[in-house]
Amino acid sequence: ALFSDLSRQFSGAHDHIVLVIDNGVEPTPMYIQRLHDLQMNGFRIGMQHLPLNRIKDYSVVLALCDYLFLDCHRVDITKAKSYFLRNLPQLMLCAISVDTQEKYNELKELGGFHLFAGKFFRLPPVPMGEELSPLKATYLELIRVVNQEDYDLITAADVLGQDPVLVVSLLKIVNRMTINNGITSVRHAAAILGQRELKRWINTAITKELCADKPSEITRLSMLRARFAENLAPVFGMSMYSGDLFLMGLFSVLDIMLDEPIDKALQRVRVSMNIYNALVSGTGIFSPVYHFMKEYETASWQEVSRMMILLNLDMDVIYEAYLNSLRWYRDLITA
């Protein structure tokens, strides 16, 4: 990838782009020259997964870097910070795998880090014991209805009709499907959409509403996981479960949406035991998909590569599945 035509791929300001390399980029003349050329073209360079016992070997590479990523779980981050501030002060140090408020506070107090990354920043802490608002209770009732096997379309339409926001959204969708016939009622609109598509739309639309008082990252993460998991269904030989995998991804942050533990949150909605087991205990037939999806979204390439080899997965197919989920989410929020 380093030797591809990066200037053509990134037509914007290169200094807004950080090319993150790891120890797969050896400190050889060929790589060093390429990194130098990229730097001269305005690209910024970051280094991750640096073997600390080979710092001297990588000294020339590090001299070309702007950022160094230090994993809290893999290195003694206090000693590493002291060493790099003393010997390579031009590097901006980034603490990654910061998963808790306590760890973040500790590192902030320690000082010396320019940036932080980790689960703590993507998923806010969950306050427990808060009562559900009446609106969220209605949404959960609707999810319970449509996630029953062979649910009743009229019942779903009647519950949906209690929320004007959802009704307007439904009518916008259905009106695009009908040219000559006017929509006479919510039940009529639901019937036009059909049982399967109504279920899918309700789960997606309500997830967006449940996230209304949460950071936008929660909505994005939920939607991307849903589509990515659905796209992975045929890759994992689970095409018949594509709808279930969509729900698994969609509800993977239900604990954040409802401000309660994931097991209790999932008990409020009717999901299959396959979904429940994967999200609560990481077990069952869906767990490999869920594990792979999370590792891919956090760029844990070592684990991703291990699973791809173990499960004989095609890299290009996985890549396209993820790109498709990004396009789908983009179209969803701009519709």
Describe the protein in words.
- By secondary structure, the protein is mostly helical.
- 57% of the residues lie in helices and 6% in strands.
- The chain has helices spanning 6-9, 29-40, 59-63, 77-87, 101-110, 119-122, 134-146, 153-160, 164-177, 186-193, 195-210, 216-232, 242-250, 254-258, 262-267, 273-280, 287-297, 301-311, 315-334, and strands spanning 18-21, 44-47, 67-71, 92-96, 115-116.
- The chain has a 5-stranded parallel beta sheet.
- Strand 3 (67-71), helix 4 (77-87) and strand 4 (92-96) form a beta-alpha-beta unit.
- Helix 7 (134-146) runs antiparallel to helix 11 (195-210), helix 12 packs antiparallel against helix 13 and helix 12 crosses helix 17.
- The radius of gyration is 24 Å and the shape is elongated.
- It starts with 5 loop residues before the first helix and ends with a helix.
- The mean pLDDT is 85.
- Low-pLDDT regions: none
Secondary-structure element string: HEHEHEHEHEHHHHHHHHHHHHHH
Tell me the radius of gyration: 24 Å
End-to-end C-alpha gap: 33 Å
User: How many strands, what sense, and barrel or not for the largest sheet?
Assistant: 5 strands, parallel
Read across the widest sheet, the strand sequence of neighbours is 1-2-3-4-5
